[in-house]
Fold each of these.
Amino acid sequence: MEPLRVENVTVVLNGQEVIKDVSFSIKKEGLYVIVGPNGGGKTTLVRTIMNLLKPARGSVYIFDQPNYEYLQRNVVGYLPQRSSFRRFFPIRVYDVVKMGLREAKNERDLIMTALEKVGMRQFSQVNFSTLSGGQQQRVLIARAIVSQPKLLVLDEPVTGLDYESQNEFYLLIKSFVEDGTTVLMVTHDVGFAMDFSDQIFCINRTLVCHISSQDKFSMDSFLVKLYGYGVKPLTHGHGEGE
Amino acid sequence: MMSFLELYQRSLLAGILTAISTAIMGVYVVFRRMAFFGDAIAHVGFAAAAIGVILGFSSFFSALILCVLVSLLLGRISRRSLGEDAAIGVLFSLTMAVGIVLFSVAKKQRSLTSQLFGDVLTVTNSDLLYLLMITGIVVFFNIFFKDALVHFTFDEDFTRLMRPKIDLVYQLFLVILAISVVVGVRTVGVILVSAFLIIPASTATISLKDYRWAFIFAPLLSSISVVLGLLLSLGIDAPPGALMVLVQGAMFFAALFLRR
């Protein structure tokens, strides 16, 4: 069974085609990354996969079932963009993670196990709004994995995190992949995508390129494909002498 | 004290029931930043009551029907992000103007005053019955859908994913919110009903670490304000509704001060 198949998806928002004719598939478990410029339709694509947006044309299949049918009966772990929740709502970490469960007899065990995996077990009774950005992100990951889903979809999970928290987060993601979970992640971190992912899907209103880990390619040609023009890394000129 | 209870028995009960229903709904209104929404519904109720008076219908039921319809419409507008605050602002002033004109044309100044400021001292047995019913519905609804409403308040997208029928629950929430506002108008009036929605809930949430306490403290504080407001009205020649809101305001600033 294919974890995910996106077929000719076009999404129209406020009369405009935000993404057009996007098709790709994930054939086996692993780490898959969506990259693309701001406004390129990455989040729209993810929200369509999660059935939060209806495509004008095309279909999405999760484990060979239409996404809306699969999502009614099963849980796909989902980490939305950081702006989606009310940051100052006084809710305990335990209750945030509980949101990721539909019905479970061993609710407490599942929640505490998920918190353990992300290193936040000791914070279960703490007010979520008092945590740091990195800790909040860990709790939201625990919420995404608490139902032990086979597919995990993460929308820009490291945006706004410091360097150390980003690294910890990437290690966590890799551990999920090693445990057999399929992870689809939206990121702006092209370096991470090139180093660690099995496949990269480049979205700029449509699928502009599709690179697998076996492909040989240069960063320059990749960036040209992604942005449509060459992007030179910014240098500060330290130590070059004037 | 006995004479106070005898004299104000119905008013006290009506006030406390209003306090409980509006404060519980108010917790969501405050967390979801919908304060303006409650105001708009109350003002629609004012215009609808005026239409009811002119056409000879029950002002209560005409207000109830129109408010429910408008709250569902506002709920749709807010989902589509078509400038919710501006839409509510237009509706808010327009319905106020319609209400004043209609009440004046119908020469029903007394009805106008009771709509604007409520009349907790003249509540009837049928008013009490409506209040009891809506308070029961509010409490039951909040117990039954507590998790869904709290999750939706915290993170809408994620809740839509986990609970595909959440939009239906939210529509029901808007209907019950509209009904509790209309019923509250009878007790404290159009102008002060939004205070009952907002102030006790805001006071209860000022320094809480867990939302659960807000659902206990908000109705409690609001009920205390009803009792104190009625007691004060014995000594001060002022409308009890306004005195209740003054007590709520004092509680809010005290909580703010204590938090610092």
Note: Residues 83-148 of chain A form one domain.
Amino acid sequence: MSANASSLFQYLEQLKGTTFGRLYQQPSTTFAIFRRMLPHLAKTIVMAILYMPTPFLLSDLDIWIKPTAKRDKDQAISILRSLHIVLRDASPTISLNTNFKNSLRLALEGGGDHNSFGVPSTQPPPDDIDLGFLDRYARKKWDDILHFVVNSVGFSTSEKGSSGPKQSVKDLLIGGRLVERSGVTHRITQAGFTFLLQEANAQVWTLLLLWLEAADVASSSGRGLLGGLESVDMLSFFFLLASLEHGRAYETSALTEARKNMLPTLVDFGLVYIPPANPQQFFPTRLATTLTSSDTALRSVSAGFLASGEGGGGGLGDSAGDKSSIILETNFRMYAYVQSPLQIAVLALFSELKFRFRGLVSGHLTRASIRQAVDMGITSDQIISYLASHAHKQMHRVAASTRKPLLPPVVVDQIRLWQLDTERMLATPGFLFKEFDDYKEYVAICNFAEDIGVVVWRNDKKCMFFANKVEQIKGFMKDRKKSNESK
Amino acid sequence: MNHIDASEHYDESAFTGQTPSLLTIIIDTNPRAWAALNDTLPISKAIANILVFVNAHLAFGNDNQVAVLAAHTNRAVWLYPKSPNPDSVAGPDSQDVEMTGVDGRPSHPELGTSANKYPQFAQIETSILTSLRSLIDNTTTFDLKPTTLISGALTIALSYIHKTSLAFEPSKTSKDPANPTTAPSATLAAPTLHARILVLSVSDSEPAQYIPTMNAVFAASHARIHLDTISLHGMPTFLQQAAFITGGTFLSAASNPRGLLSFLMFGFLADAEARRSLITPTQDSVDFRAACFCHRNVVDTGFVCSICLSIFCEVPENAECLTCGTKLALGSYGAKPAVIPRKKKKKKRINGINGREETGSATGTPVPA
């Protein structure tokens, strides 16, 4: 589980059980969800019971897992339940969703005729399409979208000649409230800043989820705006794209009609490329194939960008610099190996840039610059997570070898303090639990909630606690009540 | 100092992600043993099970890596990835040539064309199957020995793991000169790559390989690499010790080789990260017998050089240690101990439960208080 999986996780969590049943019919979707959404221990548990002929007792699970790791176990089970991977019944055994089980087995073994890993094109690909070309193409498309968002801040970037994203993409960004229309110009919102400061992978997911929600709204209101697309099918198509091989041609005709209709929009996002000479083929770009990658893999992907970008011109150089490029020192100085005006504009949102060299900018994080960012609606957590996710390789290495935090703690603290200067409240939507029958009940329920990691605040004296998710607790309270009654 | 900066409250787990893990599988391909197993578990089925296991490992995250080796009767062969230097021992390497695709583009028209398989899985499967087939084709009746060259495979696996982990380690070239402690020795650093070795053993341990095997095992233990073993046939004594020494898992599936996949998925899939929160199967008894350095016999009791700890099954010639050349004094070995007759005391013995076996010595082993 990574930070940028959380928005996808939230989306998945609110889906219905039957929807999951249909999602899990596709091995590629199942595989992607398994790989992307589950914590490590949950994966281990799933794999252990995948080929088990008999049901697995929950009590056996308790024996298998060390008592010290109870918290991890509860969290793993909770996530497995909320994704409908293990059945939600109260039986003493733990068993996998039948669709999930069959699909994951198929994914591991191969075979079947589900064609869910994409049908490769039999025709020879055009000669001029190689990895470098696809990377440049994807980068160009994506930068256009980012430019549109950044430009709405008011920073003028020097890059000209890019026509900007298509109107449909613009509408999507406006509909998702990443930018607001104010008169003729557009103004960025706080969600837009969050979007800008995310990693590319998380940005792609944010946009895809916006698209999904737009499709949901369109289908529920009866308008055939997006050609009657269904969100489940769209979602499993995303996961299918993620399992394709970068730089390989795939057959368009093997897709269903609905999915074919999705291709133009995906082209607008830069996730796939369709050669104009041969619309029978489509190429997934790196943005698509890394959809379900973990963070560390993305770092190596950026290395891949770098390797293929040598000789590929400046356009790729900055896509390599886009990741793993910032060095932050304890004296609040920041050095960033970036070239693109876009990246520099993003950095200028929260830092005071002093020098610009070829391929390097350096600047300070100051109280004034952070205040300015906070005034624009950027939070300190967003800045910190941006710095962390774009930290230079060397920062990662040193942090790993010295077992220290990635960013200098003093700087992280100071950024937070500077923000606290301006705002002193943090709103968390959630539920307050109070007026328990007795203290014992309070302790039991609160501890359970703490174990699954949903408690935001608790006060043992007043027997109250506040949780940001309620479904699991509801189930727990119901079970508890039942067992109390049966006693 | 470390406590003052209170860095514990920085929850950066979201940024670090999961540590990649490298699984090296050594498949014992002893033809005799597989022939003996053919009724219950033919090698084709075993390989299919292993492939599912490999895929399961890779499914954990796309930075997980896998390497597969075959330990044959007379050599160790790479199955996946391809050997970096295609040696001539394996005969004509026609398949090596066809595997290196066209201008680096991952487009192998001959493999992975199925839309029903994850591309990476198809690639590994093809590589393992072609290498294994060429290995089988190149095996002559002359090679049919009852034991397997496991130490060679272990050594290759260790060097591969070392090479791979170097790629993940912090670079040592750009060390901060003002603060040389920023890059402490590798033993202190958090591992950036979880590596482990799984041996699928079907044959007995060869006493002649005792020393090279144990050297490899201690190297693995030093590098904190778990050495797991699943034994389908035979009694791999040394691998049992290896699992004990390196903190790995040893399971014997000899009673039910058909359940190989379940054994693998349940017992061996968890990597070092998951094992921290799992209780791994332990061995109730480990055969700690060593092989002597002089005749490679497995011995229960023997002679140990007091200088270099070499083990001998009999007194070496001239009582000189064969390893370090020290002249050993044997004391009064062979002399009849002067036995002082003790008064016969009738001691009630509850049969066997008394614990200690009849060792011939009147006093027990001294136990620290």
Note: The longest strand of chain A covers residues 352-357.
